[in-house]
Amino acid sequence: MKSVKIGLLGLGTVGTGVVRIVEGHQEDLANQVATSIEIAKILVKDRTKARNIAIDAAKLTEDPWEIVRDPNIDIIVEVMGGIGQSKEVILEALEQGKHVVTANKDLMALHGPEILTKAREKGCDVFYEASVAGGIPIIRTLIEGFSSDRIKKIMGIVNGTTNYILTKMSQEGAAYADVLKEAQELGYAEADPTSDVEGLDAARKMTILSSLGFRSKVDLEDVTAKGISAVTQEDIQYAKKLGYEVKLLGIAERQDDLISVSVQPTMVKQSHPIASVNGVFNAVYVHGEAVGETMFYGAGAGEMPTATSVVADVVAVVKNMKLGVNGRQAHVSYNVTKQKTDEQIASKYFMLLHVEDRAGVLAQIAQVFSSLDVSIESVMQPSAPNRSGAELIIITHSTSKAAMNRVIDEFEKLAAVQKIKSVYRVEG
Amino acid sequence: MKSVKIGLLGLGTVGTGVVRIVEGHQEDLANQVATSIEIAKILVKDRTKARNIAIDAAKLTEDPWEIVRDPNIDIIVEVMGGIGQSKEVILEALEQGKHVVTANKDLMALHGPEILTKAREKGCDVFYEASVAGGIPIIRTLIEGFSSDRIKKIMGIVNGTTNYILTKMSQEGAAYADVLKEAQELGYAEADPTSDVEGLDAARKMTILSSLGFRSKVDLEDVTAKGISAVTQEDIQYAKKLGYEVKLLGIAERQDDLISVSVQPTMVKQSHPIASVNGVFNAVYVHGEAVGETMFYGAGAGEMPTATSVVADVVAVVKNMKLGVNGRQAHVSYNVTKQKTDEQIASKYFMLLHVEDRAGVLAQIAQVFSSLDVSIESVMQPSAPNRSGAELIIITHSTSKAAMNRVIDEFEKLAAVQKIKSVYRVEG
Questions:
Q1: How far, in Å, CA of B293 to CA of B291, rounded?
Q2: Is residue A403 classed as helix, strand or coil in its secondary structure?
Q3: How many CB atoms lie within 10 A of CB A386?
Q4: Which residues of B are annotated as a binding site for L-homoserine?
Q5: pLDDT tens for residues B303-337?
């Protein structure tokens, strides 16, 4: 077999890592696939730009079509991101019979089914391990490792930026805005952090994980997303006092043919393994009917961790090429599932209320919960009441999201409740 | 394709789980491989024994050869354990062209290379995901997920019995012997617990993990093993005071062509992710050159978790059968490595000494360390000295195992040291 030729689309952080691994691990890779792997062409925005890696200038091009239509290229590695040109280019690459490895979560979350269908038609592989949780091989784990099991729940810390911010807030008592600014200076958060802090990035990743885990088609619009911009230091401190950490969790649950997928700041019991995943690290907790509780932990981003997953996918494509079995192992989504309604989504809740400090208020509040069939696990008054009123923390037993919304509606009408300061889902 | 027929060798805990999954998940499995999977024959020790699962008695046999020589059987699933008959039967199954899925760590640690070679010759698959860490898909992760990376270090809590005992000792302050007795009553420890508590079971699993992780041939006799039977409550309490937990860790390290693999009770910093793996849970921490720190957590044993891995391997075999590519994905061990000598194995150490309580003793002790080039990170006197002497805790900087052994030899000759109460490797 002649050497396998890669067309690399993008030479940013991850693209540079891919070059480093393919070149630095030549011998290791050749030992595994008995074929040399070569990066033949690289798409860049500006050929003349200075780079911190030595690259043969003759390999660089600013024209993606030159790469995807080059008959010598076997595999397209797409690490440029975005969903406009990437999609067009990948579909054309498949049309040309080239295999595709991509790290593009936006593309796979929005257009995964279309791309995978095209790949099957053309007998091509499309692998995308790096699109979720960087260096953690969670996609192959869901497809192969748990092929025999029925996955009931996936909980993921799949966005490093927000986990970094929440960890700093928890460990150093800093305010959200200050930590966000620091994260931006360190390059952990983007200048426009919306996609990360509002949970949209996590929602895209949960779309991919839940599709694979439940072997079903999950659409991005089915995933509800709430971010961390409203998380206060007060919430985090109260959580810690009660034995919880606040984490931005993607939560996907399945019960027979009903599923729900959401992203929200969640209070997680400190004894739960995902509660101690700190900083920019990612983790995916998977609860299978037979296997029970498992968790997979590692770097969720960064040049080398993400490149590791990209190149592992390249190795898988090359193995399939040698075996002549490309395009046959695509993910099957045979389960027909329906979204749970808010009446069917159940969890415990934490609620922090600012209330009037007078006799009878607690009874009124308890009456609201009871009349709406929400059972209370505990009520605490975390600090002494003062002139402006009192604070109450309520933790519920498991209840439906709809019932909790009805409680919130009632409290908004109740004079004794001055403010609903925060409401969190509780896990663990 | 006609239905795939399995010959199940063994109907103990794991075998029963395999039957439950294959029968209970018929539809899910058929959706993935577009073929039905059927357990055609089952080897048992006693056909007449009452069982807690409904089995067609006509499928049961007490003769393994009837199964491995049955031309209708495609895949042998070996969950009977042991290394005598299992090896003979598996080699014969391969000779007959049958694929093999096994959960047998002893067999794979001792005879893995011979079995895998035979499988390649015969074009058969041999998969053994369930042999290490039960439900955690760590073997496919090492082979496929990290195919592009160079793994530098693997640390594993791969024996649930000892982790249960150490967790109980740490959390409840109970003595080793009492917890062992309780574990035996609960069925977490065997009547003869030697293989677990002396680290032999963990050593076998580390042989498998390090062979795969380093893509090299590691022999069981190269793995040094020390168990937990000498771990005292005192050690655990001192460890906790200093911010450590005592864990039975398998540690495999690679530096270029030098490797070392060992199992020993280790003090792990509480902030390290593996330190909080408690009870019968297993975890494997993998540090790759490119991917950095990762960890994989889950149930290490038990009927359903282990059966999940076995049946995932069956699914992989069936996929390969349909693709016509069996026997080609066997693990490659192309790295030629040498064992590190004790001079080359480096780590930090914890040492607890009982010494004479008189002026000059500390200076004498410090002199021994210094003369043998072992640098001290900290010295503590954990409790007030009394008539019988004083206790000293010393934590070293990273030093060689050989140097540490020389320190121990010197202390054994030094009158001021009444007793070397314990020595632990320190990680994290």
A1: 7
A2: helix
A3: 9
A4: 190
A5: 999 999 999 999 999 999 998 999 986 566 889 99
Please compute the mean of the pLDDT values over residues B262-291 and round it to a whole number: 97
* Among the partner residues B136, B281, B307, nearest to A290 by beta-carbon distance: B307
DSSP output for A203-266? HHHHHHHHHHHHTB---GGGEEE--STT--HHHHHHHHHTTEEEEEEEEEEEETTEEEEEEEEE
Nearest to A297 among B295, B316, B332 (CB): B295
Residue A333: per-residue pLDDT: 84
Q: Residue A383 has which token pair?
A: 């600090």
Residue-wise pLDDT for A397-427, tens only, equals: 999 999 999 999 999 999 999 999 999 999 9
Query: What is the three-class DSSP state of A129?
Result: helix
Mutate to test the interface with B, among A153, A294, A317 (most CBs of B within 10 A): A294
Handedness of CA B102, B105, B110, B116 (dihedral sign): positive
In the block, tokens 């082979």 appear at: B143
Task: Decide if the complex's ipTM is over 0.85.
Answer: yes
**pLDDT at residue A302 is higher than 60:** yes
Taking Cα atoms as reference points, which of A310, A331, A334, A329 lies closest to residue A112?
A331
Q: Say if residues B79 and B15 touch (Cβ distance below 8 Å).
A: yes
C-alpha–C-alpha distance, residues A154 and A162, integer Å: 18
Annotated catalytic residue A205: yes
> CB of A79 within 8 A of CB of A102?
yes
| Residue A240, token pair as written in the block | 């810690």
In chain A, which residue's Cα lies nearest the Cα of B311?
A148
Instruction: Answer whether B294 sits within 8 Å of A291, measured CB to CB.
Output: no
Average pLDDT of span A345-352: 98
With an 8 Å Cβ cutoff, are A292 and B304 in contact? yes
Query: Is there a contact between A78 and A18 (Cβ–Cβ < 8 Å)?
Result: no
Domains present along chain B, CATH in parentheses: 4-134+303-323 (3.40.50.720), 138-299 (3.30.360.10), 346-427 (3.30.70.260)
Please write the tens of the pLDDT for every residue from B344-377: 999 999 999 999 999 899 999 999 999 999 999 9
Q: Is B360 left (phi over 0), alpha (psi -120 to 50) or beta?
A: left
Query: What is the pLDDT of chain B when averaged over all its residues?
Result: 95
Each residue of A35-67: pLDDT tens digit? Answer: 999 999 999 999 999 998 999 999 999 999 999
| Residue B188 DSSP label | S
> What is d(CA A41, CA A268) in angstroms, rounded to the nearest whole number?
46
Measured between beta carbons, which residues in chain B are less than 8 angstroms from residue A291? 135, 298-299, 304-305, 308-309
